[in-house]
Batch of 2 targets.
Target 1
Amino acid sequence: MALPTIRGVLWSLPYLRNAITKRESSWDRTGGNRDYITVKPGDTATLAKIKGPGAIRHIWITISCPDKYYLRKILLRMYWDHENRPSVESPIGDFFGIGHGIAKHYISLPLTMTCDKGFNCYFPMPFFDYAEIEVVNECDTEVRAFYYHVDYELYDKLEDEVGLFHAKWRREKTVAQKTEVNLTGENNYLILYAEGRGHYIGCVLSVHGLRPGWWGEGDDMIFVDGEKWPPSLHGTGTEDYFCSAWGFNREYWGPYHGFPLWGKRSWLGYHTMYRFHLEEPVVFRKSIKVTIEHGHANDRADDISSVAYWYQTEPHIEFTTMPPPEERIPLPEKKSSEVLEEILQEFKKGEVEDYNRYFYYLYAVLEDELRLKEPVVSVLRFTWDLFAKLDKRQKKEVLVDLYTKAISILREQGK
């Protein structure tokens, strides 16, 4: 009987491999139990130097460091085949799947933060001649303990049609646009721009919501091989790109997509989501530009960061540069009362045009922070119906009064 032509994920396991399996790790060379390295501030530690051809198959790390933002201040870099510029460069926490300098349990197929502590990467990372992995401590303190495993294989030969693994972090405080439509994609948030031949395999996207209200109306737009508008791949909303629908109503994580970090229900605060194109990579022959709107037609001004993952032939271009550590740490989360106070000052200065939106902002914050019950929520919805019928001057007066009272209530509760 012939073997089936359709093979599952585990089907390759019975086939014997022509490879040598090896590991680089932080084990105690004295035979003791001090199975970690320390890294002083400003120092670079080399985790692995491997002569190929071969492929890294798994990386595991765990870190003990007193710096509050060590996950943003420690950089992870990887170099293939003696290149001068790293193919992987990212704050170490973001690379493993959660942004904002936060460690949080989740499990996907290629990346995990198991039990908040054990960070794993299963992306295959082939190299023809040489591989080097290093971490750079840009914290204000010593990394007291850095444990790691780098599991890899060595081969007699690597196939010519192999792309090299790349990952890059970037961050942008977006600027809200005032247009009603977006027919160019020019002001979208940029996740990746690459030149060469390869395929894009996904991203981790982290949003710090600086204003209440849903920031996820933005469409993903992926431009392939220098094409002009419209792009080959145009999505229908942020949560749609991350394989949810009608927003996110819970934290979740799965093999290919997830929303493992949900900030406040008013959409203020820190949020992280991921999408991996493991079954449907986006192929490019000359270049690729991966973007996503920040709000509908880019109408949101939030703090966004991302890690893009892709494979390509070398050389690669530097589409973004790594900022210094003080520019990588997350902005502090403000109390909801502080955010409403900022909006109130905008009212008083006459800087607000869309009063309906700011009524919704107030509604979202109150429902979230005060955990309002359905009867009270119903009253707010009824109030919205009345509010919508007011003229602009009346809306401003009502909003100033409502915001003032809401701020007072939230401050009393320390929120």
Target 2
Amino acid sequence: MHAIDATTTDGRRWGARLAAVVGAGALLCTGQALSGDAAQAAECPAPIRTVLDTTPATAERTVALTFDDGPLPQNTPDVLDVLRANGVKATFFVRGDQAAAHPDLVQRIVDEGHAIGNHTWSHPDLSQLTPAARTAQIERATQTVVDAVGTEPCFFRGPFGIHHDPAIAGLAWERGMTVADWSLDTRDWSTPASWSPSFQQQIIDRATSPRSAHPIVLMHDGGGYRQNTVAALDDVISYYASRGYTFTDPAGRAFPSGSGHSGTYVVQPGDTLSSIAAGYSATWQEIYQANRATIGPDPNMLQVGQRLTIPGAGGGSGGGGGGGGTPAPPASESTTYVVQPGDTLGSIASGYGATWREIYEANRATIGPNPNVIQVGQRLTIPGTGGGSGGGGGGTPAPPASGSTAYVVQPGDTLGSIASGYSATWREIYEANRATIGPNPNLIQVGQQLTIPAG
């Protein structure tokens, strides 16, 4: 969807809606049914033969995030990055000409678990075309998607929202596609074509004002400058995630998601390979080797939303299988420790009679000025017992007294590790401290004072 003219487009949309109602009534009265011989992709459900502006109520609360007019290299990778970082899936209504120019981006969309929709070949006003030209626009776009990824799109959306006329919607239904309109238009296609925090807030406000429990949200990754959409997306996702919405496609189908006990795991804020491995009979090295292509060359750099394959039982969870994270305390003569993936000064200190500060002071020349940044492979000197293992250490704090509601972030802390010491989830802590933390819940700073909500 991209604006021709706001007044013209709105008028056409309302006219199309009226035509759809009249046309649907005519079909019911005559008993005629639309049919066609185009095969639908095996992954697609049977088309829902009505134009959806909300998702079917397949769960108590559902939301479908949708993006039109791409793929476009200037925007689509950034949108995908934000979705991946949040572990959320969306539906991309691609233009055929853009998909033909950037098949690698269509492939990435599919590879990362998102749904594909047909948005015609070149984004015309279908109401102004002949029936043959309409058909060509739709079929050419579908063929381009098939050429790029091997499957047909499951959804269709007409440019400018012109898809309510049964003569247009029927073309999609005949070809196995459900027609998806929207209930929330962010108008991110309008203005400006430059960075604007105030416009980003408008996008957020429009995207997070659902009038039903099953909204379809319209955004754009193509058609021009869309970095304001990219910047707003974190907050849009957080709004729905924090309120218990299930992210679905426009047909109300939830996207597959990993769980810790199904062979896959989706990285959450605060996770490390070591903490993930602790929940399985596998070592962090085994998980890393099984996911090297996803994680990249540095096993310490996990991204929220990454989907990891958990290999079968390896070295066991309790033995000396080489797992990273907090080591067993060394023999008394040992005074060094080599940093492993997932380590923090707080986690290392918890295995010794030392505090993170004592370890940092003993290794300042190696670590550098920021105690929160240690590198895998660094060799640290572990000083003799200092303040005991319970006093002043970083990492996860002991729960505060019942009347205390504040916590100061220590080196090595994450929202996940902080939450583990309280009767609260990381999301509850984040929501209570969004103004302090900022839009990314994975970026907390040493010294920030956080409010811990009551359990």
